[in-house]
Amino acid sequence: MRGTLAFFKKEIIEHIRNYKLFIFFIVFAIIGILSPLSAKFLPELLEGLMDENITIILQEPTYVDSWIQFFSNINQIGLVVMVVVFSPMMAREYEKGTLVHMVTKGLPRLSIYSAKLSILYLSWTVFYWFSFAITLGYTYYYFPDSSTEGLFLSTFSLYVFGLMLLALLLFSAILLESTFAPLLSVAGFLGLLFLGELIPVIQEWSPLQLSGRNVEWLTGVELDQEMIQSFGLTSILILLFIIGGGIIFKKKAIN
Predict the structure, then answer these.
(1) What is the pLDDT of residues 94-108, one digit of tens each?
(2) What is the pLDDT at residue 250?
(3) Alpha helix locations (H) across 105-150?
(4) Which backbone phi and psi does 234 adopt, to 5 degrees?
(5) How many whole angstroms separate alpha carbon 167 and alpha carbon 141?
(6) In the prediction, which pLDDT does 237 show?
(7) How far apart are CA 208 and CA 212, in angstroms?
(8) What phi and psi values does residue 254 have, to the nearest 5 degrees?
(9) End-to-end CA distance of the chain, in Å?
(10) What is d(CA 96, CA 64) in angstroms, rounded to the nearest whole number?
(11) From CA 123, how far away is CA 100, in angstroms rounded?
(12) Are the C-beta atoms of residues 172 and 185 closer than 8 Å to each other?
């Protein structure tokens, strides 16, 4: 436990010096602010840009539109930034030779692995819910009639989806020892999931439901069997990636 905390402290200091945490703070703060702002003022902006001879009927924006923007921004910006920034987290350790030095000094490999996993999950947890809190506050400000019905489930499902991608990222980083290979592994995995959506049986279990059906619960749709299956499979994948990564790292040769 002491070794894990020591290596975790080293990771925190390194991420602060490399401005990684600052990057996450800025990106997720912008997502939290812009999501309700774009939902509120985008229709007015579009009306101002359109030609006077063209008439477009736009519905009055609601709090649901704010959360639609939030889910979209997290998927397309937040998760992408998180994966890209953390992609070389193991490759740099191998290149610098810091792992060899620490292991020979007696630091257990699982302590290193636990610290890496902890910094991944702590970063995602803190900045995701930080962005959520900003969005929630601004949504209530611009849309006073906002409702929280189904909000926790819709946001928690996307959070779990992010946990799965980060577990896969660390697993790939340990297995492939490359800067870009983990990033390509996550992209390839998502590609397979999208292809699987074409097959009804696979679609019913697909983890993509956790990142694609968030708005349904805000509009009153209840948790169904397919979503329960998706939560179950995603949880299993998270455990497999975490356990598999730990086993491989424990037996892997560190040069």
Answers:
(1) 777 777 777 777 778
(2) 85
(3) 109-142
(4) -65, -40
(5) 36
(6) 96
(7) 6
(8) -105, 115
(9) 25
(10) 48
(11) 26
(12) yes
User: How many C-beta neighbours within 10 Å does residue 13 have?
Assistant: 10
Structure tokens at 44: 């007015």
Tell me the three state secondary structure of residue 56: coil
Q: Crossing angle for the helix pair 225-251 and 109-142, nearest 10 degrees?
A: 150
Rg over CA atoms, the chain: 21
CA contacts within 13 A on the Cβ side of 110: 6
CB distance 82 to 123 below 8 Å: yes
C-alpha distances in Å from residue 46, one per residue of 11, 41, 50, 79, 251: 45, 9, 6, 28, 57
- 45, pLDDT greater than 60: no
DSSP letter (8 states) at residue 75: I
145 vs 208: CA distance, rounded Å: 30
Residue type (1 letter), 61: P
How many CA atoms lie less than 13 Å away from 18 in the CB half-sphere?
Answer: 13
Query: Residue type for 208, please?
Result: L
Buried b (16+ CB within 10 A) or exposed e, 177-212: bbbebbbebbeebbeebeeeeeeeeeeeebbbbbbb
The mean of the pLDDT values for the chain is 85
